[in-house]
Each structure stands twice: as structure tokens, then as C-alpha cells.
């Protein structure tokens, strides 16, 4: 039985006919250079190309999973710390023993004001920050600000908590806008790497068909929000494993509570001022905060180390080079688009419903009737319901586009009607299962809402020059809605439910009206994105079709041949290349170098 020849022959080895191969070319040390360093005879270019793009697709999946896990850990730490901090500061005994007359309630109110009020100004600076730092680095910077907020709780003072809360409020909209932009870009890149053969046949510069990345966007948004909604469950771990051991039971905390649910007024009216049975030791609090700080640092490392860039370097240069004044104005100019105007009620409702889940259902219906010790389990039910239902967004692969979004609105509409007429009795646990079911179903509606809106925006606005503006507008309206809820926290529960109901109906009707206009073929009015104007002298792309060439260069390239330079010797040394500025040596010799165009 003959031995098989090696797949890749060793360079310099003797051939089967001694020192010469079958063509008479000498092998070994005297072989030609092309024979030694040339391509392997069994090299399969098509197979290597397939492997290359498979690695690219796996890299995109890694980016999506890393961004999703980073967002989940960041918000899990932030919500868990804020919840534990507010419960501890609410207790009168804890405030007097630990901090005396420092005025923690006043500090907490200013801290919440910083978190809720500061995002109102985010529309002015978010696009500028995203274009300046880049999408990935904006995500990293915002996650770092969340970690800064966690670190300030080691030393709870006015000059640490309030400034960090203001900084966190400034980072909320940039974080969410860059996250939405990042997931949409990953879907587009995955489509590009999956259909590389089609693009090679047509030329890489040709734009893919509109909506071709939609299936990948649906999958990636479902993955992202299934991870993100788990952050509400992660945020309850400090409550379940630490703080619940120090809490009074419901007979003490709810002793003066007279009405709950639809009959309640404000937030937990009549709730006992002392909720801690024993005070936690400072050492135990430091351990818990250190664990939260370590998780926040891990989220930073995930975003920094595992998330790749959303754009190529030349694309980022183009995005910045439209002019900072234009970048500042473009979010406002996009209001001309009727699609955005029709979606604004849904943006507002998206902010209303997530805060109503945390304050209305969890506090006004849950804690008010079954006690503070069951708050964590109610939010875990909401989190698991929302995380599982995020995968229902994949139904958009087979169903018409409006179905998931309208289905989420229908679930919330039904629950709002039920909650409008339900007033649970305080300190009665027989109806607690209804609360868990209501929390889980509200999570289902929230998941369909968030996944549907983000996917819809990524499909309607797939131009990479607009995505950061669109997601900025979306999350800014969410922030405005959350600020409105913060201002109206003392309203009667029936008034809150009525506002929620009216906003939901208006959002659904407005969205269906937008879909009707799109089916009729009404063209949206989009602002023109200015052409990139590069100011860096001597910079040119290594491509034939420069995206940074000036108008004069483009017209010159389309016309006839270039003018020949005048005959005769030029003074000074010959320039090394066309379009290059003279180096200091050439300037010293008196040569001016070629003129800049």
C-alpha cells in the first residue's frame, strides 16, 4: 500500500526525481524564489474565503452577546443598588443611628431629581458625543459612569451622591442610543458577511436591498432584550440574599395602610416609617457594595474587551466629517418625518409602562398589600416574564410587522382595564398569586413593546448616517415620559391608570395610521445628510472611489485627462509623491512641493 504524499510539501525538500522536479526546475537551496514562497498547490481560495466570513459572523454574534450581557449587568447593579439604598434611607432608625442630622431624605430627593431631570437635555449633546467618541466607546464611557455611581455609595454624602446621580442622568440617553445603534449595525454587518458572494458579484460598494437585514435584526433585538430584562431579576439578588433578613413582616410595615390598588393615593400612603427589624452592619454593607462594584467593573470589561467596533475607521471619519453644527441640528430636523411623529406616542408610552411596572404594580398593588418582603419576588416574576416574552419578537419573522407591537399593546390594555377596577386588601395574602400573574403578563407586554419598537426603527431607518439620531430621539422621549411620571408620583392611582390608558390607545392608533400611510406609498420627508468635508490635509483613502474627495476632485476625475505639467526642471528636489506637502528638508532647500488642491 503506497503512502499518501503530504498535503503541503516542505519547501526545499528533494522532489521525487532527486534534486529536480518533473519540469526540470532544481529543488532545494537552488530553487527559484517563487517556488519556495509561492502559494501551496492545494490552496482552496473559496474555502478560505468561506472560513474567513464564518469567523466574521461569529465575531458579530460575540459582539451582540457581549453588549447584551454588559447591559444586563450594568442595569442589574444600578437598579439593585438604588433599590437597596432607598429602602435603607427610608427607615427612620437607620437614618438617625448611621447619619444623624445629615438629611438623607433631602439627599435622596435631589439624587432622584438628578437622575430623572438631567436626561431632558440629552437631545442637545447625545448625537455629538456618539459621533465624537464612536458607538462602542460611548457605550464604554456610559457604563463607566454607572460604575462611578456605584462607587460613590462607599461614602454617602451630598457631594458624592448628587453629582454622580447627575452624571448618571447625563449618560442614560447616550447609553441607550448607542446600544440601539450598535445592535442595528451588528445585524447589518451579519447580513453583509452572510451574503458576501452576492455582494462580490455586484461590487462591495453597492447598497444591499432595503429591509434585507430585517430577519437578523429581529433575532439580535430579541437576544438583547431577553438579556436586558433579566437585569430586573439580577437587581433583586441583594434584596433576597441580604436585605430581606433585616425587614419587618407585613403586619408591622402595613399596620396603618388603609387602601391599596386603584383606591391608593401617591406611593405607599400610610406605610410605616421603620421597616428594618435590625440594622445591617457596616462591614456587611461594604461587602455587598464591593460585589456590586466588581460586577459593574466586569460589565465595563465586557464592553471594552469583547465588543468590536460598530463602524470601520473610514466610516467613523465620514460620520464625524458632516460638521458638528449639522450633527447638532439633525435630530431636530428629523421631526419632519411623519413616521417619527406617528411613533412619538409609542415612545412616550414605552417610558410610562416600564416605570408603572416598578412603582404602580410593584408598590401600589404589591408592597401595599403583601408587604415589602415580597417586592423582590414580584419584580423577579416581571423580569422572567419579560425575558421569556422577548423571544416572542421572533414571531415577526413569519407574522406581519404590526402584530408583535399591537399584541403587546393589547396585553397592556387588558391589564390596565383590570387594574382600574381592582383594589387588593392590605395584609391579605390569598390574592398574592394574582399579583405574580399580573406582573408576569405586564412583562410580556413590555417585552413586545421594547423589542417591536427597536426592531421597527432599525428597519425603517437602516441608513447608517441616521441611526444614532433616530435612537436618540426614541430614548429622549422615553426619558421625558419617565420625568413626567416622576413629577406625577403623588397622583391618585385612578389618574395614573387613566393617563396610561389614553396614551396607550393614542399610541396604537397613531402607529396603525403610520402603517396605513406606508402601505399607500406616502414618501417620508427626511432631512438631507451633508456630504463629509474632511479637513485633514494629505489624507486619502486607499480606494478608487474616495468618500472624502471634494466636489472639484470628483468633477475633475469624471472629465478628461489631467493637464500635463509644464516642461523644464523644477527648482529644488523632486517631490516624492503627488498631493504631498513638502517635508522640512525640501522647504529648507527652497522647494515648494506640489500645490494642494
TrEMBL record:
Keywords, ordered alphabetically: Adaptive immunity, Antiviral defense, Cytoplasmic vesicle, Endoplasmic reticulum, Endosome, Glycoprotein, Immunity, Innate immunity, Lysosome, Membrane, Phosphoprotein, Transmembrane, Transmembrane helix
Any single biological process term in GO: toll-like receptor 3 signaling pathway
Family (UniProt): Belongs to the unc-93 family.
Subcellular location: Cytoplasmic vesicle, Phagosome; Endoplasmic reticulum membrane; Endosome; Lysosome
Signal peptide from the UniProt entry: none
Topology within the bilayer: Multi-pass membrane protein
Physiological role: Plays an important role in innate and adaptive immunity by regulating nucleotide-sensing Toll-like receptor (TLR) signaling. Required for the transport of a subset of TLRs (including TLR3, TLR7 and TLR9) from the endoplasmic reticulum to endolysosomes where they can engage pathogen nucleotides and activate signaling cascades. May play a role in autoreactive B-cells removal.
Location of the region described as Disordered in the Swiss-Prot/TrEMBL record: 1-36, 522-597
Domain of life: Eukaryota
PANTHER family: PROTEIN UNC-93 HOMOLOG B1
UniProt protein name: Protein unc-93 homolog B1
Molecular function via GO: Toll-like receptor binding
Gene Ontology CC terms: early phagosome; endoplasmic reticulum membrane; endosome; lysosome
Membrane-crossing residue ranges in chain numbering: 60-81, 111-130, 137-155, 161-183, 214-243, 285-311, 343-363, 375-398, 405-425, 469-489, 495-512
Source lineage: Eukaryota, Metazoa, Chordata, Craniata, Vertebrata
